[in-house]
Design a protein that fits this description.
Length: 214
């Protein structure tokens, strides 16, 4: 992202009124541009490939194609866009699958306008964004792997994880720890395996649940 280029968005929601409201909100705020809208997950995947937005604002429960399946497909395709879930649902059956599928963040639709803007900016930079209610739910819902042979995290892996929890990007972690980005990714792969998770948000949630962080 560059300071002189606005963050491009794709809005995905099955309610036209919600899409109109979000489009108007972001159109009136500096630093954002809405490239398009989609009424379901299937259309979202197609449009994301065509428009290449920085951030996809994704609802979850939509007739014709749910958000979780769309997130999973975007992840499978290696889409550049970061997915920020924006929904009214915060149950375990909604939050965990979305995070595991590859969502960068998860906000509820009652979030204040400025919180939403901040979350989109953070998501565009690859930072994990979770509403307080969702973060609390994830901490309590994520389960420690049952296998008795789980390895403890190394000191370096703990350092990397602590920086991830602060929303630090791979590039910033590399600079702070004086290592390469490739090494950061290797540490992340190892700690994901040890924690039994697949992404940054789940790693942080699991680490808090296990007492590794805080």
């Amino acid at each position: 992202m560059t300071a002189d280029r606005p963050i491009s968005l794709l809005i995905v929601d099955d309610h036209p009124v919600v899409r109109d409201g979000l489009r108007g909100m972001f159109a009136a705020a500096p630093g954002f541009t809405v490239l398009g809208e989609a009424p379901d997950g299937v259309a979202a995947v197609a449009l994301a490939g065509e428009l290449d937005p920085d951030v996809v604002l994704m609802d979850l429960r939509m007739p014709g194609g749910g958000g979780v399946d769309a997130i999973r497909e975007l992840t499978r395709r290696g889409a550049r866009a970061k997915v920020l879930v924006l929904t009214t649902y915060d149950t375990d059956s909604d939050t965990l699958p979305a995070i595991e599928a590859g969502a960068t963040g998860y906000l509820l639709k009652d979030a204040p306008r400025e919180e939403l803007f901040t979350a989109v900016r953070a998501a565009a930079q690859g930072r994990t964004v979770l509403s307080p209610a969702v973060a609390s739910r994830l901490v309590s819902a994520v389960r420690t792997p049952a296998a008795p042979g789980n390895e403890p995290l190394s000191a370096r892996e703990r350092e990397v994880l602590a920086l991830v929890a602060r929303g630090t990007s791979n590039r910033e972690i590399a600079r702070e720890l004086f290592i390469s980005e490739a090494t950061v990714k290797t540490h992340l792969t190892h700690l994901y395996g040890k924690l039994g998770v697949n992404d940054r948000a789940a790693a942080v949630a699991t680490a808090y649940q296990r007492g590794i962080l805080g």
